[in-house]
Every structure is written in structure tokens, then in C-alpha cells.
Amino acid sequence: MKTHPTEDILDAVVIGTGAGGAPLLARLAMAGLNVVALEAGKFWKATDDFATDERTQDFLFWNDERLTAGSDPIAFGRNNSGTGVGGSTLHYTAYTPRVQPDDLRLRTDFGVGEDWPLDYHRDIEPYYDELESFLGVSGPAAYPWGPARKTSYRYAPLPINGAGRLMEKGCRDLGILTSPAANAALSAPQFQEGYGWRSACTNRGFCQAGCNNGAKASMDVTFIPLAIQHGAEVRAECLVTHFERDSQGRITGVVYVQHGKQQRQRCRHVFLCAGSVETPRLLLLNNLANRSQQVGRNLMAHTALQIWGEFDEPVYPWQGIPGALISEDTHRPTHRAGGPADFVGGYLLQSIGVMPVTYASQMARGRGLWGATMHEAMGRYNHVAGINILGDCLPYAHNYLELSDEKDGRGLPKPRVFFSLGENEERLTSHANGLMRAIWEAAGARNIWAFPRSAHVIGTARMGTDPDRAVVNANGQSFDVPNLYICDNSIFPSALSVNPALTIMALSLRTADKFLMS
Amino acid sequence: MQHQNPPYSVLDLLGTDRVTPATRKALLTRLSEPPVTNPQFFTEAEFGRLQRVCARLMPQAETDSIDLAGPIDGRLAGKNTNGWRYDDLPNDGDAYRLFLAGIDQTAQVLFNLSFDTITPDEQDAVLRAVQQGEPSGDLWVGFAADRFFEELLAEVVEVYYSHPVAQQRIGYTGMADQRVV
């Protein structure tokens, strides 16, 4: 790997190496720019370092304490941001549905929420095409929802696991269309520039605790090796704390702590891609790019209710890609088993597998089981299957991130996140609750139970066209600090009714292209 | 509806090449860790009480003897967190100490005895009151008892089900994820 002295004035410093930072790092390096990525976590070698053990793999999560408040507080830790080169793609499920064009125009269609300042076909779709091929997404030959695709997914779908087969059965009974899902995990080996051959998925079902054979398209086996191949430097274990600025307010250097020592890297441009909690935290700490006062505001989180059930036949819920099956019939739902669709936006349905410690922990939190009842319920773990939604969420004034007075182990203020569901999210969740229970009943489930949750913090540095109402413009560039770009899910103007990773990567490539054109 | 999981030995499985070296190392280390007898964070009295609590939350056969309180003590001594905390709870260490003092007071109110000397059924009654957010005693004032109980229970079951012996009990064989050719 090529390295740069900190005294060099680099073309760009990229902060964070997840879905927001890694694609643009590679793009900038391939254009011949001198770029360094600063990553708070370590540079792992998954094939040697990752164990098939949930507890050992806790190091993948952002474990600096965050304070969670509001009437529906969001769980962090393993439920959200990651750390390590690759960011949270190290523990994402690799579920990569595309948004549908109407996801980008919630305000136009419903009169609430926000439109995106982007056009699906012009600004996003070409990047989806590129990404799905590059990452090696496995999916169905014909995907039933959204605009027609230019080509099929590159690889055949991954095998449908136990939960997927049961969901298929329940949905068929209710007349709900399902399809094998798109997953950024290989169903056949693929050569990856800078990395070598990535293996096909072996159905370990351990995506959320780290893939150890390169099958899952996390950034550490895709864009990061590509970036390094083209001259980028990835500097691990570097936590950014400050920015140096000139008299015009432009950033001239990034200050970070590496192995307990403060360092300064000079640069011409900064790409802040630290995720929707660390990005606004860093901006607030430095009172940066916040003339709009929107940093930390408009915080959203996907409605992500899970419905679990027990089946007579063995399911083996740890086996196979966790999100094997999808339905987007509920993208803009009409009247169905869930009751009237009296809400804005919609959601997708996915079958879910689960690892044992995660499932036990959820039963502790969601059902409060202990003693003999917990033993009995976990005794049926092999017979458990779940369905999950991923749904819209509107921005509200009562949902935001702030800096608390409490300091973390690094001496920085802990972030405090307020989150309470609004009426729209309550209605959407209630609809989904009814529908998923009906699916599981049709599939023959017993002891059905609901685990309320939300996932993916979104919107804390949103993009828009109005500098008074947004933090960055449609190209991800700060309205206040012209040599600062932001790219992660903090810039999403609306939550979208799909998992965010593929869209973050698409924005990342687009941001790089727009920057290179400027 | 109770299912029988086919019997197997997790120890035998860990010896095969269906398990990666990293996985084998992690699980054998956990299997061989001696139970904590000298707590680093809690006092002896607090630690003993936490062990009694754990024995009610996840009761075990004598032969299993998975150390549940020890890893909690180790985590708190190392100032490690799971990445988040309910804003209405004090920091993890203070919350644990408050809880351990609080259940003793509740036991005094309900049974005129220390939590350490009441029967298992009586201990369960105290713990249920905490879980429901209505434990007796002034030590609990201003403390979100039900929230803390959720945190405590989640940590205890996570420690328990991370142990290969507990995983064997529920028929989990996912650690053996390597194809053998």
C-alpha cells in the first residue's frame, strides 16, 4: 500500500471506510488523486480473524457508548454503526434492494416528508447497475417490482433458507407475491480487483457477525482493495476529532488521534463518511457546516418490526443468507390482511434468520423471559423463523441528535439520540404487525410474538436545494464549507422503504463523479 | 410443543475440521475459563448477590456451571459497554450497584430478610417486582427499575447462550460451518 506523509497536502481525506466512504475512495484513487482514508477501527483480515461466534465478533460494532432517549429509544451497538475498515458493511446483512422512483418523492405524492433533489433514472439507476455487477449481487432473473431492469442480476439467487420457504408458503395463501431477494453475497466465485477470488457463499448465516470467506460484498473485500490497488492509503485506528480551517473557513487539515497520539493530515478536500451518528457528532463538536441548524435534526430510523413464530418442522434459523425472500407488495399497500393502509409511504417484507445469542437477547428484551420459560423458549430455537419489515419514517422536530455533557472514554461528549415514533410510523407498524401475523398463521406458526425495533439512523445532515433547510446540496457538498463533502445515510432527505446500503454506495460513486467533474 | 434436538457433543465438534481455527480458539478459550472468584469491579458481597440473581434468571444444572456473573464483573472492570445506554439510567456500573442494593432493600421490605437469605421463590418475587418497575424501597426512587432489568436480563442471557455448553443444550451447531472435502 502506498503511504503519504502527513505534511503532504493531499487532494482529499476520506473519513470513514463504510458504504459511504469506500466507493468514493476508490473512484478518487482511480482518477489519480492522492487520497487517504482515516478509519477509527482496525484493518481486519476476515479469513483469519473472524470467528463464528457472536460474542467474539462484538468488535465489529461501534461500542463507544451512545445515550438513547425518547419514547421509542433506538438500540445501538450491534443494531447500528460498525467499526473497522469496511464500517458497518462488515456486519450488514447484504440485503440490497433498490429504491423505487416514488421513494424519492414522498412530499409530492403525500404532501409530507421530503422529496430528494435527485432523479431516479438519471442520478441513481446507473450507479445501481454498476454496483450490482461490481459487488456481485445475487438475485432473481426477473425482479417483480419497480422499473424494469436493464439486465438481470449477475448471479442466481442464494438458496432460500427455512424462514424464506415458510414465508413463501404463508404469502402464497394470502395472495402476496414474493421473490428471492437481492443480496450482495456471491452465489458463484468472483474475481475482485486488488483482492483476488471471493468465494461463493457457504450459507453460514453469519453475515451480521462478519463474513469470513469474502462471499459477502463488504467494503474490505471490494472497494477498499480496489482503492489500494489504485494508490489510495487506508490509515486504520485513526479517530478524527478536529478540523483546521483557513480564514475563509475552508478546511486545510484533519486532526485525528492514532494510538493515543494526535496527528494532523493536511488536505485540499474532505469527504466525511462516518455514518449518521458520528458525522453529525463531529460537525457539532466543531461547529461546522451548520448555518442551517439542521445538523443532528430530521433524524429518522426505519420502522423494522419483527414477527417471530415457532414451527413444527426444524427451521435451523442460523442457516443460509438471513434475508432470503422479499415482498414489495407492501411498498404502497392497498387494503390487505393488515387493515386499511392509512399511512404515508410503505415498507418491504423480508424473511429473517437469526443467530442464537441475538435471538435470546431479543427474547429477553422483547418478551422479558427468564428462568424456566427462557429455557423452554430457547429449547425451540431450531424451530424459529422470522419476518421483518423495513419501512418509511417521517422526520419530526422531536427526533434529533445532540451532544450530551457526558464524556466517553476518548474524552469526547457522548451523543444523545431522541427518537419517538410518530402517528404515521405507529399506523404503518400496526398494518405490518397484522399482515405478518397473518402470514405466519397461514404458514402454521405457533407462539407468534412481535419484537418492536427500529434500524438505520438516517437524515442527520440532510441534502436539499435550500441552504436554510439542508446541510449539503444534491452533490453532497456542504453549503457552508465548499471543500467539505458528506456521504453516508445522514444526507438522506427521507428514510426510503428499503435497506440503505446500496443507495449509500450509489450516492458515494455519484458524489465522487460530481466532484471529479467540478 | 417441546422438540427434541438430536444429541451431540460440542467438544467433539470443536475438534473437527468443520470448525475454523479462529472459531475453535474462541470457543475452547471460553470453555476453559475458570469461574471468577475474585471480582475486580464488585465487592465480594455484591458479587455473591449478583451470582444469586443470575442463578434465578438462568437456572443451571450443577454440571453446566456457566459463569454468568464473572463476565459481567470483567466487563464493568474494563469499562466496556455494548455501545448504548438508556438515557434515563445511570452508567452501567452505578446501575448494577444500585440494583444490587435495591433488591436487598426490597427483600427486607417484603420478607424482613436479606435477598441473600430468602428462598428462590421469594427471590423471584423480588426480581419480578423489579421487572415490572414497582419494587418496594426508597433506594429505587428515580431509578428506572424495569429498564435496568431489561439490560441485566439481556446481558445475562447473552453470556449464557454464548457458552458452547448452552449452545449444545439448544442444539445449535452453527459454529461448525466449514465444508469438509
Automatic annotation (TrEMBL), chain A:
GO: which molecular function terms?
A: flavin adenine dinucleotide binding; oxidoreductase activity, acting on CH-OH group of donors
Q: Which residues form the Glucose-methanol-choline oxidoreductase C-terminal domain?
A: 395-507
Alphabetically ordered keywords of this record? FAD, Flavoprotein, Oxidoreductase
Q: InterPro entries annotated for this entry? A: FAD/NAD-bd_sf (IPR036188), GMC_OxRdtase_N (IPR000172), GMC_OxRtase_C (IPR007867)
Keyword Membrane applies: no
* Domain Glucose-methanol-choline oxidoreductase N-terminal intervals: 199-303
Q: Which Gene3D superfamilies match?
A: FAD/NAD(P)-binding domain (3.50.50.60)
- Phosphoprotein as a keyword of this entry, yes or no, is no
Similarity field: Belongs to the GMC oxidoreductase family.
For this entry, the protein name equals: GMC family oxidoreductase
Organism expressing this protein natively: Rudanella paleaurantiibacter
UniProtKB/TrEMBL annotation, chain B:
Q: Looking at the Swiss-Prot or TrEMBL record, what is one Pfam family this protein matches?
A: Gluconate_2-dh3
Tell me the InterPro entries matching this sequence.
Gluconate_2DH_su3 (IPR027056)
- The identity of this protein, by name, is Gluconate 2-dehydrogenase subunit 3 family protein
Task: Record the organism.
Answer: Rudanella paleaurantiibacter
Q: What is the lineage of its organism?
A: Bacteria, Pseudomonadati, Bacteroidota, Cytophagia, Cytophagales
